[in-house]
Write a structure and sequence with these properties.
The chain is mostly beta strands. It is built from two helices and 16 strands. Strands 1, 2, 3, 4, 5, 6, 7, 8, 9, 12, 13, 14, 15 and 16 form a 14-stranded antiparallel β-sheet that branches. Strands 10-11 form a two-stranded antiparallel ribbon. Strand 8 and strand 9 form a beta hairpin. 34% of the residues are buried.
């Protein structure tokens, strides 16, 4: 095992030990937020390829505070359900050497430990392949849009890939600007180590909820809110970037002749508009090539609209 992979395993083990050292969570829990994000290549560069589409829904909870049973500080649990389509540049006629079709459905359980401006996360995903029916669902959607059905003949076989991941992040504040560098490691369906940073800049003076959780989308790296982020009208700009060292990807099987790009880059920018009755987020993410035969990069768009009644 390469030295850096061993380092990733050590970091994940340390995070897991840190969160496991928390007192046993035998308290009743209360919901503290729901987050969601839809991403699609058509919303970015107007095409439908590679990282074609994804949707994620997250539900967060924390212990109920009482005089007899005080809550574990910062101990937040996230249940996340996500689905995505990873495909070739041409969904209907796969070119030789292009990446295979993969419809992915995953459930993940994450635990967060918050200490001031620092946030640590440890989580496990179970990733399921074609038996989840994502490809068939995309075919039905294309039927409704009178578009050709995707070619599912060359899709990856059914598989389950337990995946362990962890992230360490810390925020630094200067006036209305927040800088949040982070480090992330993952072992499983894709194995990598990543470093990056995000910036948040308020255009006005919206008052942000100090307990607001920002959750990171797997594909784009965009941070989506777990609930209404601001108590007043505001516009927030959210640029960010990261780079990863990638060792393996089950979406690109070595046995089929695929070779991953060892260096993976992402750049992103988004804007969050908040008013008393609604929040709207739109962002774009530049994704560099991820496998040897990928001829170009791509731009993916992300969207979320939350209404309050």
């Amino acid at each position: 095992m390469p030295r850096l992979i061993r380092l990733c395993a050590v970091i994940l083990s340390a995070l897991l030990g840190l969160i496991a050292a928390l007192p046993a969570d035998s308290q009743e829990r209360q919901a503290v937020g729901v987050g969601r994000l839809f991403s699609n290549d058509f919303l970015g560069d107007g095409k439908d390829r590679w990282h074609a589409t994804s949707y994620v829904v997250s539900a967060l909870s924390e212990p109920i505070i009482s005089q007899t049973s005080p809550a574990t500080s910062g101990h937040i649990i996230e249940h996340r359900l996500s689905g995505k389509v990873v495909a070739s540049a041409n969904l209907y006629a796969v070119a030789a050497g292009d990446r295979p079709y993969s419809g992915v459905l995953s459930y993940s359980h994450h635990r967060y430990l918050r200490n001031g401006d620092a946030l640590n996360r440890i989580g496990i995903d179970v990733v399921v392949g074609p038996q989840a029916g994502v490809g068939q669902l995309q075919g039905w959607v294309h039927d409704g849009l009178t578009a050709p059905r995707p070619d599912l003949e060359a899709q990856l076989p059914n598989a389950i890939y337990p995946t362990l991941s962890g992230e360490v992040a810390k925020s630094f504040h200067l006036s209305r600007v927040e800088l949040r560098p982070f480090a992330e490691v993952q072992l499983g369906v894709e194995t990598f180590a990543r470093l990056g940073a995000d910036v948040f800049a308020d255009a006005f003076f919206g008052q942000r909820d100090a307990e607001q959780m920002r959750l990171r989308d797997v594909t784009t790296g965009q941070l989506y809110n777990s609930a209404s982020a601001l108590s007043g009208p505001d516009i927030e700009f959210m640029p960010g970037a990261d780079m990863a060292r990638v060792w393996s990807s089950k979406y690109l099987p070595v046995s089929d002749g695929y070779m991953v790009e060892p260096a993976r880059f992402r750049g992103r920018a988004g804007v969050q508009v908040s008013v008393p009755q609604a929040d709207m987020f739109y962002g774009v993410t530049w994704l560099g090539p991820q496998f040897e035969n990928q001829p170009s990069d791509q731009v993916v768009g992300s969207l979320n609209v939350s209404l309050r009644f």
